[in-house]
């Protein structure tokens, strides 16, 4: 699977940004929108005018998860990642680790069944929490190289957070030693470089999952 153009936007007016991507020459045949909040009826009508088929993945449209055998409590980014891993590593048990604001860990059996998953704070979230919920600890940025043991307050925070996540990863690998391990998310490469065992890094896993959903509707 080959992805074409990708865009990143970090502002608050997400739907306004989405509509700037449509031009008379560039209108999608199938448009898949995944959102953590419900799309308003007005935006839904505008989106439908931009494509032949609109697929909404939000709190008001949970039916797609049920069709794929995934529980409705999953966020759609996690669901899309799971669909992509099912496609890429079919027939293999997998441990999916998404390194973002949170660290999510999802488990798939060899036949693609979702076995459940865990959520813990992501790397930057851990640094921010130490600073926010203590009176004396400084806010530390993710280091290029973290020591195994700190020799100052900042280096102790660096060592504690990074080592803690690495131990967490190793723990999941030990629990499921036969699984293929797939890293994705913003910090995936950072932790992949620190792994001694073989893992796969797929940075656009969510986009691949959404593309697979679009392909399904093309075939229909």
Compact summary:
The protein has 220 residues and is an alpha/beta fold.
Succession of helices and strands:
HEHEHHEEEHHEHEH
Shape: globular
How far apart are the first and last residues' alpha carbons, in Å? 19 Å
- Poorly predicted segments: none
CATH superfamily of the domain at 91-203: ATPase, nucleotide binding domain
Task: Write down the CATH class of the domain at 91-203.
Answer: Alpha Beta
Annotation, overall tally of beta strands: 7
Mean pLDDT: 89
Instruction: State which percent range the strand residues make up.
Output: 15-25%
Return the CATH architecture of the domain at 91-203: 2-Layer Sandwich
Roughly what percent helix? 25-40%
- The structural class is alpha/beta
Determine the number of helices (DSSP H or I, runs of at least 4 residues).
Answer: 8
CATH topology call of the domain at 91-203: Nucleotidyltransferase, domain 5
Report what the structure shows:
The protein has helices spanning 14-20, 41-48, 63-67, 76-88, 123-132, 153-175, 188-192, 205-219, and strands at 30-34, 53-57, 94-99, 102-108, 114-121, 180-184, 200-201. It is built from eight helices and seven strands, in the order αβαβααβββααβαβα. The chain has 220 residues and is of the alpha/beta class. The protein is globular, with a radius of gyration of 20 Å. Helix 4 (76-88) crosses helix 8 (205-219). The strands form two sheets. It has a five-stranded mixed beta sheet with strand order 5-4-3-6-7, with helices on both faces. Strands 1-2 form a two-stranded parallel ribbon. A hairpin with a 5-residue loop joins strand 4 and strand 5 (114-121). It has a domain at 91-203: Nucleotidyltransferase, domain 5.
């Amino acid at each position: 699977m080959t992805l074409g153009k990708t865009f990143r936007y970090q502002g608050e007016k997400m739907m306004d940004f989405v509509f700037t991507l449509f031009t008379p020459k560039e209108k999608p045949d199938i448009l898949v929108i995944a959102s953590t909040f419900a799309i308003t009826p007005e935006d839904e009508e505008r989106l439908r005018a931009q494509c032949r088929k609109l697929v909404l993945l939000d709190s008001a449209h949970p039916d797609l998860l049920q069709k794929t055998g995934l529980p409705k409590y999953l966020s759609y980014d996690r669901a899309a990642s799971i669909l992509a891993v099912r496609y890429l590593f079919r027939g293999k048990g997998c441990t999916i680790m998404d390194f973002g604001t949170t660290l999510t860990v999802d488990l798939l059996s060899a036949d693609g069944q979702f076995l459940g998953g865990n959520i813990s704070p992501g790397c930057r979230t851990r640094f921010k929490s130490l600073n926010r919920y203590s009176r004396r600890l400084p806010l530390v940025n993710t280091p290029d190289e973290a020591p195994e043991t700190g020799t100052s307050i900042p280096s102790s925070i660096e060592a504690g957070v990074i080592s803690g996540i690495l131990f967490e990863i190793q723990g999941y690998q030990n629990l499921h030693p036969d699984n293929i391990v797939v890293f994705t998310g913003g910090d995936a490469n950072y932790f992949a470089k620190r792994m001694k065992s073989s893992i796969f890094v797929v940075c656009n896993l969510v986009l691949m999952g959404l593309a697979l959903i679009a392909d399904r509707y093309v075939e229909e």
